[in-house]
Design goal:
alpha/beta; seven-stranded mixed β-sheet; 13 helices; 27 strands; 26% helix; RNA-binding
RNA sequence: UGCCCCAUCGUCCAAUGGCAGGACAGCGGUCUUUGGAUCCGCUAAUGGUGGUUCGAAUCCACCUGGGGCAACCA
């Protein structure tokens, strides 16, 4: 786990109390209950960390339960993706369950409710039911079928199950109160008819329980103690409690709500993700610009970083938005201690070292890690007469605070030599195409014996040895923190960031990385953290920028 | 408009009737063979009005503001 002394949020305090008092007479048991109809995202990660974390911290168990009660939308491919992503995050469930395995038990409970007069078959159509439910300010009115006899209800329910009726002909509803101030309690629907093939149960069933019915009872059946969900289910707690009580579960599991994670500049709803994918705004569910766990993974973020981020965000009841800076901090903080540094030139500018012997190649030792990272290792990087540096590291007419190369200036080539720019070569259009420099042979490795200081250190590669690569530079997918906060008549697609992806071809990376496997992470010194992409091939390397380095020069530039 | 939930630095989270604190961001400095990292310092908050109390961010009332609920979705 990423932390040994987890923050005591209000949920953990409650669980600690319940564990100490023995309230449930059994070990703490939580659950993660995804519906297998989409890919897990950063918001799920918070819930996973909470539920799995609590089970671990309190010596309890955690169940992975697929809430697969809607045959229209669910698919086995999503259960595989969800399992893969939970494991990637670093968690393993104690038990794996499916709500669809409880269909028989759930049906028995429904029959019992009918027998008790607590549920009835309603034969009004969808529209009538909606109308009769009333509104938030006006009470609903009972269905004309509400007072059917127990016998008739039992008969109808059995025939619904037997497949005698078409979709929509009848529903099973709890008999509570059509005037209830909580809309959820106005005789909520328990079962609907769906002649559809379920991805696990096939055609065994043609009636399917709704969320409110299946969820609480599934918790109760499994002996869940703490059922943690997001704020929007607060009103559903009434029906949750009603059902587990009517079904006779004691002590009943307790639902507690917390605020979902909302990350600035992102969207995670399945509907919106689907549109982004289908309309081609992104390349797929694992597009590195998306905050699906598959996108995050492809972007090069580690599970440890996500866990640290989730811990840092905390758990509370207040709906909140989290700044992207907090996320990026967690990512950099993790990568800083983890990945080797290598040299990569993004926009190459040729440099000829005029006093360096033609044809000579030196191998210079370059540490993989800076002095303050407790890891060791190094590789040799070739140095020769013709190099590339980044265009951004040269200015013909540099301002005072620009510490890099300019005419007549001396800088250090990282792990290399001090060089001084003597000439600037331009093409017919006046663009700088080459720099001519001299090097100081006494500064090999980057130190000058005479104690002479240079302002700047820049990265470089040897022109003849560097490997061409493609860089994919990502920015936020949206231009505004809240992509749903747009003028009337527009939606989140109107605030897509046209610069969310910049593909750089012809970048030059040092040869040491040429044969590394896909998924290898690096810091390209002074540029950012990168990971080799799934598309990367030997001879056609592709790197995703996971996150930039903090850049105080960019800030300084912005001031003027 | 009925019911429910919520309200602390710019952001996120603490303080559980007794000195409002941490993290991120920002600003300034230190250090530096990454304008990275580190280290140091600074800025910055209890939505409002009443009440209870020796004492209120905390308890109560009202107000204001934000969010959720009227799918045969979850």
């Amino acid at each position: 786990m990423s932390n040994d002394t987890p923050r005591r949020d209000f949920i953990r305090e409650m669980v600690a109390e319940d564990a100490a008092s023995g309230r449930f007479g059994r070990p703490i048991c939580t659950r993660f209950p995804p519906e297998p109809n989409g890919y897990p995202h950063i918001g799920h990660a918070k819930s996973i960390c909470l539920n799995f974390g609590i089970a671990r911290e309190f010596g309890g168990k955690v169940h992975l339960r697929f809430d697969d009660t809607n045959p229209f939308t669910e698919d086995i491919k999503y259960v595989e993706a969800i399992k893969r992503d939970i494991r990637w995050l670093g968690f393993e469930w104690d038990e794996e369950f499916y709500a669809s395995d409880y269909f028989e038990r759930l049906y028995e409970i429904a029959v019992a409710l009918v027998r008790k007069g607590k549920a009835y078959v309603d034969s009004e159509n969808e529209e009538e039911i909606r109308e009769h439910r009333g509104t938030v300010t006006v009470a609903g009115t009972p269905s004309r079928y509400r007072d059917r006899s127990v016998e008739e209800n039992l008969d109808l329910l059995a025939r619904m199950k037997a497949g005698e009726f078409p979709d929509g002909a009848h529903v099973l509803r709890a008999k509570i109160d059509l005037a209830h101030p909580n809309m959820i309690m106005r005789d909520p629907l328990l079962y609907r008819i769906r002649h559809a093939t379920h991805y696990r149960r096939g055609d065994a069933w043609c009636i399917y329980p709704l969320y409110d019915y299946a969820h609480g009872l599934s918790d109760a059946i499994e002996g869940i103690t703490h059922s943690l969900c997001t704020l929007e289910f607060k009103d559903n707690k009434d029906i949750y409690d009603w059902l587990v009580r009517e079904a006779g579960f004691t002590p009943p599991p307790e639902q507690t709500e917390f605020a979902r994670l909302v990350l600035d500049y992102t969207v995670v709803s399945k509907r919106k993700l689907l549109r982004l994918v289908n309309e081609g705004h992104v390349t797929g569910w694992d597009d590195p610009r998306l905050h699906t766990l598959s996108g995050i993974r492809r972007r090069g973020v580690t599970p440890e970083a996500i866990r640290a981020f989730a811990d840092g965000v905390g758990v509370a009841r207040k709906p909140a938005r989290t700044e992207m800076a907090a996320y990026e901090h967690a990512v950099r903080n993790d990568l800083n201690m983890r990945v080797p540094r290598v040299l990569c030139v993004v926009k190459p500018l040729k440099v000829v070292i005029t006093n360096y012997p033609e044809g000579q190649v030196e191998q210079l030792e370059a540490s993989y890690y800076p002095h303050d990272v407790p890891k060791t290792g190094s590789r040799m990087v070739p140095f020769s007469r013709e190099l590339y540096i980044d265009r951004d590291d040269f200015m013909e007419d540099p301002p005072k605070k620009f510490y890099r190369l300019g005419p007549g200036r001396e800088v250090r080539l990282r792990y290399g030599y001090f060089i001084t720019c003597t000439d600037v070569v331009k093409d017919a259009a006046g663009e700088v195409v080459e720099l001519r420099c001299t090097y100081d042979p006494a500064t090999r490795g980057g130190d000058s014996p005479d104690g002479r200081k240079v302002q700047g250190t820049i990265h470089w590669v040897s022109a003849a040895h560097a490997v061409d690569c493609e860089l994919r530079l990502y920015e936020t997918l949206f231009t505004v923190p809240d992509p749903d906060d747009v003028p009337d008549g527009q939606d989140f697609t109107s605030v897509l960031n046209p610069n969310s992806l910049t593909v750089v071809r012809g970048a030059k990376v040092e040869p040491s990385v040429a044969a590394d496997p896909i998924g290898s992470r690096y810091q390209f010194e002074r540029t950012g953290y990168f990971v080799s992409d799934d598309d990367s091939k030997p001879g056609a390397l592709v790197f995703n920028r996971t996150v930039t380095l903090r850049d105080s020069w960019a800030k300084e530039k912005g001031k003027s």
